[in-house]
Amino acid sequence: MIALRVIARLLDYPDQALFDHRQELLEALESVSELNLQHSARLMQFISGLCARPLLDRQAEYGELFDRGRATSLLLFEHVHGESRDRGQAMVDLLDQYRADGLELDAKELPDFLPLYLEYLAHGSDERARTGLQDILPILALLKARLEQRDNHYAQLFATLISLSGSEVEQASLQTQIAREARDDTPQALDAVWEEEQVTFLGEQGCASAQQTAHQRRFAAAVAPQYLDVAQATTRGTRS
Asked: What distance in Å separates the CA atoms of residue 44 and residue 57, rounded to the nearest whole number?
């Protein structure tokens, strides 16, 4: 599905290449058959709006939205397993699934990073893509609801993913759940988390970006030690 590849790119960390090639993304959306006119128009609007502001502003916004707290994390298993060791095994299983379908990861992103998972689905059949989206539908719906609560434009992307899954979502119960949740991205909430965990990973990070550091800390807390080398060697990073 071309639409999945476009959305995967839009959900990844914004960089200069995205801004430089935005016209190609717009042109790709003009030819997609899997989207109705409404969703196609909304994606085009999202791309135009995203690239209308300075890149550094968009990068800062992305980090604030997806890397502060866990409520809007794009790491799928964080919503399923949290920081338990079960998440490590789940990531190893997902890596095996990628390899079985001919996808070998070669860099530093975690296998449960949503844009990476969408890229994987986009390279299969439409049926596999829909099934893969249905597998994570509760997470997509939860992220959409949380982003809507924050009145954030990224919610549009999740609405389109839900539409592509071909499944319905019960919105009323989600809205009730979201209304009861406390924000976990405030300075106070973040301080409380770090005081509890006190996680260190691979010593000093040097010049590593805050984006990478956040992922590494989460990985260290979640992955069983026996899987650490495997994940380091095979996970893929799509950001420059």
From this structure: 20
